[in-house]
Amino acid sequence: MIRFTRVSKIYPKSGPALTNVSFSVAKGEFVFLTGPSGAGKSTILKLIFMDERPTDGEVRVGGQSSVTIRRSDIAKLRRRLGIVFQDFRLLEDRTAEANVAFALEVTGTPRATIPGKVSRVLVQVGLASKATSYPRELSGGEQQRVAIARALVNDPVLLVADEPTGNLDDRATRGVFQLLRDINASGTAVLMATHNLELIRRSDYRTIELNRGEIVFDSSEAAKAAI
Amino acid sequence: MPAVRDAMFAFRRAPLLSALSITTIAFSLFAVGLFGLVVLNIRQALQKAEERVEIRAFVADKTPIEQLALGATDVARYDEVLKVDLVTQEQALERARNELGEFRDVFEAEFLPSSLDVRLKPGFRDPESVRRVAQRLKALPFVEDIRFGEEWIAQLYRLRNIAGVAGIALGLAFAAVAVIIIGATIRMAVLARSREISIMRLVGATDGYVRRPFLIEGFIKGVLGGVFALVLTWVAIQIVGGYLNFQTIFFDRALAITGVLCGALIGLLGSAVSVGRHLRRV
User: Fold this and answer.
1) Is residue B152 part of a domain?
2) Closest CB from B195, B198, B204 relative to A106
3) Distance from CA of A200 to the nearest CA of B (A)
4) Backbone torsions φ then ψ of B113, nearest 5 degrees
5) Parent domain of B134
6) Count of domains observed in chain A
7) In terms of domains, do B125 and B142 share one?
8) Could you count the other beta carbons within 10 Å of the beta carbon of residue B69?
9) Do B186 and B127 belong to one domain?
10) Are B172 and B232 found together in one domain?
11) Are B195 and A154 within 8 A, CB to CB?
12) Among A129, A155, A181, where does a domain finish?
């Protein structure tokens, strides 16, 4: 699903963000990506959805390589991914259902099928009753659920979430996290960057810990070593 | 079509910004249009002056009228010649009495020569062509003298060339300024929607999908701006013409449509450049 092979990323102004990072994520896996601020979590996610290219090494996502992928193929790759951000990134002048429908419109989905698909994912995230609400009328947790619905509506094979609970209170955090677990249980791989250690401790998902651009701990490697 | 729908949605969502863009485009094109009208009217005036270019071939005394008539017919067949008027001595006197006050009391025509007044076709009114025809006329056996205002024609042509070159240079400069201003207003519209564009890219929209509504929007703004500019130009020329009591000409239909299409093209190009630059950054 995802493979990082000796990936380094150096930004011209701020210097190295990742150094010689290698790991892989299998289909259907749930992986936490953790570490202090500036460890490289967001950089890894940007490399996954090809918002950035590695300075060295190779990133492979869903069969596409960072070395050979063309600009026109990046859009097609992103349609197979669902991306969720800490700041939700909803369109403020559109309703919840219009925000979700947006992801279908830009990918050329036939108009007749859009309402049905939108309805389905809004039910899945528990927001069917808030379909016609604008983002300003929704709580933080509800807005994040709309963002997740938008990420899900194209049936992605991988959901990438960058600090999805970072702006939420405890209750909303638990609700969103449970939603992500349910999504993973239905077969979608989830890669979630977080520094909420409480969430990590309370689940038994694989954890990759970063510090200063390097992987310092990978629970799957530790488990293999223990065996 | 989603792109057209998105473009229309953009107008509804930010009507003030759209109106500002269209007005800015209109005033930029108004400057170009006004300049174009000035050039058009100067060209019209120069063309009228060009029509007065003629060669007067004075005929020797006692040349038989039949020979004159034959000569006039031959000259009329020259490729460069539009028209030949045979002016008899009596007609010459009549003309002199009408044009020159000092001839008002003169009634004898014998001292005035007959002449062939030769008008040239458009395209042959440059100094070189005029000189060439004049020399051919001078070689005719019954022609005694030739007058064709050589210096005046040379100056007219110099003025026409200067006006032409200046017109093109200044026109291009005005157009360049218009393109820059229009590009800037469209860039504002693109930046106002940069968040939307980045979200579109994140959910998998292709560059073409992002670009299309902006191109349509730019095209529409260019057309509306062009039409508005045409109206402004027409109003301006009516005011100037009325105030100066001066006969002016306006763009014909072809030029007016060309002007509006230029506005559309500038709007389209401005959008393409603004969106293209933005997409390369996100």
Assistant:
1) no
2) B204
3) 27
4) -80, 155
5) 54-147
6) 2
7) yes
8) 11
9) no
10) yes
11) no
12) A155
CATH number of the CATH domain containing A227: 3.40.50.300
B4-34 confidence digits (pLDDT tens): 877 777 777 778 888 888 888 888 888 888 8
Q: How far is CA B251 from CA A44, B40, B228, B233, B260, in A?
A: 61, 8, 14, 10, 12
Task: State whether residue A71 sits within 8 Å of chain B by CB.
Answer: yes
Q: Give me the pLDDT at residue B127, please.
A: 83
CB atoms within 10 A of CB A49: 20
Q: Which residues of A touch B200 (CB under 8 A)?
A: 102, 106
pLDDT at B54 over 90: no
Q: Which residue has the tokens 């049905």?
A: A116
Give the domain-ending residue among A98, A132, A155.
Answer: A155
Mean pLDDT of A91-101: 92
A199 shares a domain with A143: no
Chain-wide mean pLDDT for chain B?
83
B203, B210, B280: best to mutate for the A interface, most A CBs within 10 A: B203
Looking at the structure, do residues A53 and A165 belong to the same domain, yes or no?
yes
Determine the residue of chain B that is closest to A103 in CA distance.
B203
Does B276 lie in the same domain as B161? Answer: yes
Which residues of chain A make contact with B195, given a CB cutoff of 8 A?
Answer: 89, 91
Looking at the structure of chain B, the number of domains it has is 2
Interchain proximity B202–A154, CB inside 8 Å: no
> For the purposes of burial, counting CB atoms within 10 Å of the CB of A183, is it exposed (0-12), middle (13-18) or buried (19 or more)?
buried
Q: In the prediction, which pLDDT does A224 show?
A: 62
Full residue range of the structural domain in which residue A54 is found? 1-80+156-227
Identify whether the C-beta of residue A163 lies closer than 8 Å to the C-beta of residue A136. no
- For chain A, first and last CA: distance in Å? 24
Closest residue on chain B to A111 (Cα): B2
Hey, of B202, B279, B280, B282, which one would you mutate to test binding to chain A, going by the most A CBs within 10 A of its CB? Answer: B202
Does residue A71 share a domain with residue A112? no
